[in-house]
Amino acid sequence: MNYWLHRISHLAELSYPLLEKGYLTIGFSDLINHELIDKVLEDDWDYFNSQFQKVWNNVPRTRHNLWNFLKFQKGDLVIVPSWGTFFICEIVDDRPFLIGETFSEDLKSWGNKNVTTNGVHLLKEDGKAYDLGFARKVNVLYRDVSRDKFADAKLTARMKIRQTNAQINDLKTSIETSIENYKVDKPIHLHSIIIDKTASLVLDSIQNELNPDKFEKLVKTYFKTIGANEVSIPAKNESGKEGDADIVAVFESIKLIIYTQAKFQKGQISEWGTNQVLEYRTKKESIDDGYNKIAWVITTANTFNENAENLAKQNEIQLVNGIEFSKMLLNAGVTMLNTSF
């Protein structure tokens, strides 16, 4: 059994009603066909890529989200984040469904709007197709589970990733503990209170006691503490370098690399760092080494400007402001701060 995170970030007005009926969904409506499902289940990566090239004229990195979704296996547990809550679902099908196969006469979207089908797609009242392509049959084991009350620090942090889905087997203990606590109504209260009240003090100390170089070392220590196998600070004069990353953290067990820009600033920061780490990640993505590569910007500043936020949303970049990073440090453990930076 595997553990997954799958975000409903697309067409929530229909995706959530379908989830209530036991169907977890994803987009890619222009790729609907049974052969694609068959080929993915046969691990035919070349065919899968060729379909994107044929239909979209490019092979986007977001294709990994569809591949993962189609590869969910019966018995896998899927965490589905929502607004301040999350669902815990179990995959119960033997193979994925095409979206048209989820249709039922009583299916309605938010606002009590009728949903119909043309046999392939699900349709809006005006006859336009919803951009949903595939579904998995799930048993919703637990719904509307409070993040604040029942998700520990590691699970809470992972639910903030911007990509649509990811394997989270490394959080098995966190997930199982959350389930047990939810079943007996044993919320995490004190932890949340202490973190919220202490974060501003931590941030103030970071801003007043460290400098840019020491802040980079603090970020590096954080990644080591949360389980990175290797953390490095790339040379500033790296040959053939495009963009920039201050810290590279490798999580071997989950085949994940996080490229991070560390910005030691106050107030609001611009999109410059976001652009730099995006260019750096884009360059590294050309290396087919089996690792999922994501980008972060961690800052001591309070906020990011609108351009940075929009760029991050469009390119699945995680933005972490000063207070959020301070909470992450506290969640990782106070003992990690017992280091000379």
UniProtKB/TrEMBL annotation:
This is Restriction endonuclease type IV Mrr domain-containing protein. It comes from Rufibacter tibetensis. GO terms for biological process: DNA restriction-modification system. Residues 209-329 form the Restriction endonuclease type IV Mrr domain. GO terms for molecular function: DNA binding; endonuclease activity. The lineage of its organism: Bacteria, Pseudomonadati, Bacteroidota, Cytophagia, Cytophagales.
